[in-house]
Amino acid sequence: MRSEQFQRMVDALAEVERAKGSEYTSYSVRGKRFGYYWPRTQTVGLKQTLSEQQALVAERPEVFEVQFTTGGFGWVVVYLSGIDADELAELVYEAWRLSAPEELIEATPWPTAG
Fold first, then answer.
1. Which of 64, 87, 91, 94 has a Cα at 20 to 30 A from 112?
2. pTM of the complete model
3. Which Gene3D superfamilies does the UniProt record give (predicted)?
4. φ, ψ (nearest 5 deg) of residue 59
5. CB 65 within 8 Å of CB 76
6. What is the C-alpha separation between 55 and 60, in angstroms, rounded?
């Protein structure tokens, strides 16, 4: 999985706001954060439900690790080298969906992996 594919997945979503830090880029929708990208480590951090966070990490700890939990959500670190585009597209959409308002969710179709 290449970082360019991840960027295209994010670009396919509505109203994504990017903020560049010194070591990472964060992604939000209408002011609510849903993801991060660290180019140095080729990893992304994605908002998920607590149950999804636990399931992903338990299933494949070489690909996923717990990033943190907050506000009833569990964030996961995803190693891009260990995930295929279809699975990552699903996780990116879910992260965005957990932060987006209902009208954007209804107007934004499920993304393709690209």
1. 64
2. 0.92
3. 3.90.1150.30
4. -70, -45
5. yes
6. 9
